[in-house]
């Protein structure tokens, strides 16, 4: 009897583990798809959003993209993701004096370029 209970528990744990792995894999691929989008972005003149300038082929940008995306979705920080690999988005390089990616600029014109999640939260959290 104990062996049957152990087998049922083992099968249940295995099924839960496989489902969890599938969910993580699908979620990871979904975010990668979002990151690779090269849509043309129009930044409203008086936006209250935090602007997140990144490139989908930038290792530093890739290292923080998932965290920034999920933080934005879970806390409604209202981040505008701008992929600088889209040629039409490159007009923002001069307008916002961009010298590096990833760069975050909030509505108060506070900015941070880098990958420190604490510093990113300070700029994004100012909204």
Entry keywords:
127 residues, alpha+beta, 4 strands, 4-stranded mixed sheet, elongated, single chain
Task: Give a concise summary.
The protein is α+β, with helices and mostly antiparallel strands and 127 residues long. It contains 4 helices and 4 strands, in the order H-E-H-E-H-E-E-H. Helix content is 50%, strand content 13%.
Compile the SSE list and pairings.
Blueprint: H1 2-36, E1 50-54, H2 59-75, E2 79-83, H3 92-95, E3 103-105, E4 111-113, H4 117-124
Parallel strand pairs: 1-2
Antiparallel strand pairs: 1-3, 3-4
Helix pairs in contact: 1-2
Task: Describe this protein's structure.
This protein has 127 residues and is an alpha+beta fold. Helix content is 50%, strand content 13%. It is built from four helices and four strands, in the order H-E-H-E-H-E-E-H. The protein has a four-stranded mixed β-sheet with strand order 2-1-3-4, covered by helices on one side. Strand 1, helix 2 and strand 2 (79-83) form a beta-alpha-beta unit. Helix 1 (2-36) packs across helix 2 (59-75).
- How many extended strands? 4
Biggest β-sheet description: 4 strands, mixed
Element order: H for helix, E for strand:
HEHEHEEH
Spatial strand sequence of the major β-sheet? 2-1-3-4
Tally of separate helices: 4
Over the alpha carbons, how many angstroms does the gyration radius reach? 20 Å
The helix content, as a percent range, equals 40-55%
How much of the sequence lies in strands comes to 5-15%
Mean pLDDT: 86
Shape: elongated
Low-confidence stretches: none
Structural class of the secondary elements? alpha+beta
Quote the distance from N terminus to C terminus: 59 Å
